[in-house]
Amino acid sequence: MSTQPPQQETDESTAETSAEPETESTSPGQQKRAAQKRERANASAQRQAEADAKAKADEETREIKVFRYDPEVEEKQEPRFDTFHVPFTKGMTVLDAVMYARDHYDPSLTFRHSCRQAICGSDAFFVNGRQRLGCKTQVSELDEPIRIEPLPHQDVVKDLVVDMDHFYEEMESVDPYFDPDETPGNDLEEQRQSRANREKVKMSTRCIWCAACFSSCNIAAGDNQYLGPAALNKAYRFAMDEREGESRKQERLETIEQEHGVWRCQTQFSCTNVCPKDIPLTEHIQELKREAVKKNLKFW
Amino acid sequence: MYEHDVIVVGAGGAGLRAAIAAQEAGADVAIVSKLHPVRSHTGAAEGGINAALREGDSWEDHAYDTMKGSDYLGDAPAIETLCQRSPYEVIQLEHWGMAFSREEDGRVSQRPFGGLSFPRTTYAGAETGHHLLHTLYEQVVKRGIEVYDEWHVLNLAVTEEERPEDRTCHGVVAYDVATGELSGFKARDGVILATGGPGQAFDHTTNAVSCTGDGQAMAYRAGVPLEDMEFIQFHPTSLPSTGVLISEGVRGEGGILYNAKGERFMFEHGYASNDGELASRDVVSRAELTEVNEGRGIEDEYVHLDMRHLGEERIIDRLENIVHLAEDFEGVDATKEPMPVKPGQHYAMGGIETDENGETCVSGLYAAGECACASVHGANRLGGNALPELIVIGKRAGYHAAGKEMEPAKIETGQRGEYETATIDSPVELGEGGSPGDAVADGGAVAAGDPADPDTVLNATVRAEQDRIDELLNKEDGVHHSEVRSKVQQSMTRNVNVFREEDRLKQALRDIRDARDEYQNVKVMDPSRTFNTDLLQTIETQNLLDLAEAITVGALARREFRGAHWRAEAQERNDDEWLKHTMLSWNRGSPELWFRPVILEGENKTYEPKIRSY
Ligand SMILES: Cc1cc2nc3c(=O)[nH]c(=O)nc-3n(C[C@H](O)[C@H](O)[C@H](O)COP(=O)(O)OP(=O)(O)OC[C@H]3O[C@@H](n4cnc5c(N)ncnc54)[C@H](O)[C@@H]3O)c2cc1C
Ligand code: SF4
Ligand code: FES
Question: Which of A295, B33, B155, B188 counts the most CB atoms within 10 A of its CB?
Answer without folding.
Answer: B33
